[in-house]
Write a sequence for this structure.
């Protein structure tokens, strides 16, 4: 990267801090609800920048093994299921769907109840 | 904006022979798709609180017209279901738009407050039973009274949801799997009835005494009534209390006991589970629809944009239910 610090994540965290410390107490209740959404969005973006590549790669690698190919995408996996080219009871398939779902929620909302339950 | 609104509200209420002065008109945090305003009306006799609910007038892929919601509430109230009293209904052509005005019901609708605050602790004990009872009352309505409501067979709903998902061209292997799974399920042999379509915390008003009122009828339709029982059991509506299957506060036995205090239909829990998966898939597709309104530029809303990243909540709930023994 040719860019100076703050990094993209550091910039986003500075904005989050500003919203939380200075803006939150100033807004009326109906906007406080939206502000919380805005703060969550910033956190999603931070997590995706920090962990997104590794989380995606993990799923794609498993998928490459499953379909025995050097390249693989979510579209390939979707089509494999849609066209029923794989047994729906296949354990490797089900494992990939679990991993995919866990890795997506790890960025979108790691506090989500089902994710936390499954981590325990 | 609120001054203009005050004017049309006063006008509309006077047409209903309710003359008075409006004050404290304020927007409330509502659903993602409707405006909700609270106001007080001072008449010669007294001051009373009211709620205005107003939509765009456009029927969405799932939602009905706001004015039709009011029609349903009037009918189910006569059957003894707890709903707010409607005082005025406005059609899209009128200055107020597609809207209705109802009496304010004291209590709380925000799910996290109901689940967290001590004052609702006692009410929560019996709430699953009360919800079952209320859902059964709704299901007893005579469907011939709702010619304006769409009829939705479960197989059609599954196909519609799937086709909607496909239309967004965003690949979800979990949804592909869910679609195939749902097509193989039995959803219970039962006569079609009025289905609320979105019965859960957030859409009911709860006081310290218990369930006070059922609100937000925009997803109502005619179809298999067991959909309502599966919907409230979805993890999406447990607000973090994942071990309490019914709405984050109760258990399924109490819900079904409440249902059977009114209805003789014996619900099998395996069928509720099929509806639970269906409901989770449905909520996932609704999230896609909401996000697409932002992505296509028809509205610019951070709220709708963010909801696109809630699809993954439904995916993990589905894999938990199908592969990992989730309840």
């Amino acid at each position: 990267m040719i860019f100076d610090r703050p990094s993209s994540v550091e910039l986003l965290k500075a904005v989050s801090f500003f919203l939380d410390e200075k803006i939150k107490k100033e807004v009326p209740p109906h906007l406080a609800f939206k502000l919380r959404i805005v703060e969550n969005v910033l956190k999603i973006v931070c997590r995706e920048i920090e962990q997104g590549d590794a989380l995606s790669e993990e799923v794609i690698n498993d998928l490459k093994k499953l379909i025995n190919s050097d390249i693989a995408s979510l579209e390939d996996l979707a089509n494999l299921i849609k066209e029923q080219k794989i047994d729906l009871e296949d354990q490797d398939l089900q494992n990939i769907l679990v991993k995919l779902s866990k890795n997506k929620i790890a960025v979108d909302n790691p506090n989500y109840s089902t994710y936390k339950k499954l981590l325990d | 904006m609120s001054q203009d609104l005050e004017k049309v509200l006063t006008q509309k209420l006077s047409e209903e022979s309710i003359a008075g002065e409006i004050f404290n008109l304020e927007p409330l945090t509502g659903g993602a798709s409707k405006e909700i305003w609270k106001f007080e009306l001072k008449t010669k006799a007294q001051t009373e609180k009211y709620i205005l609910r107003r939509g765009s007038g456009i029927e969405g892929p799932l939602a009905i017209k706001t004015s039709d919601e009011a029609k349903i509430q009037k009918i189910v109230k006569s059957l003894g279901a707890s709903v707010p009293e409607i005082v005025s209904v406005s059609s899209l052509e009128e200055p107020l738009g597609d809207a209705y005005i109802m009496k304010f019901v004291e209590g709380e609708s925000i799910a996290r407050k109901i689940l967290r605050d001590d004052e609702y602790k006692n009410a929560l004990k019996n709430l699953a039973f009360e919800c079952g009872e209320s859902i059964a009352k709704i299901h007893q309505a005579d469907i011939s009274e709702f010619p304006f409501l769409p009829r939705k067979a479960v197989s059609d709903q599954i196909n519609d949801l799937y086709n909607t998902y496909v239309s967004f061209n965003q690949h979800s292997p979990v949804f592909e799997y869910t679609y195939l799974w749902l097509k193989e399920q039995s959803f219970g042999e039962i006569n079609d009835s009025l289905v609320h379509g979105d019965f859960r915390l957030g859409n009911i008003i709860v006081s310290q005494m218990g369930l006070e009122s059922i609100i937000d009828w925009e997803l109502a339709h005619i179809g298999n009534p067991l959909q309502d029982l599966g919907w409230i059991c979805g993890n999406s509506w447990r607000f973090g209390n994942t071990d309490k299957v019914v709405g984050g506060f109760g258990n399924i036995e109490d819900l079904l006991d409440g249902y059977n205090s009114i209805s003789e239909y014996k619900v099998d829990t395996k069928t509720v589970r099929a509806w639970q998966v269906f409901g989770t898939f449905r909520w996932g597709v609704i999230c896609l629809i909401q996000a697409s309104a932002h992505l296509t530029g028809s509205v610019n809303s951070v709220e709708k944009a963010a909801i696109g990243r809630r699809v993954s909540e439904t995916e993990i709930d589905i894999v938990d239910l199908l592969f990992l023994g989730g309840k």
About this structure: Chain B is about 40% helix and 15% strand. The longest helix of chain B spans residues 269-295. Chain B has a mean pLDDT of 94.
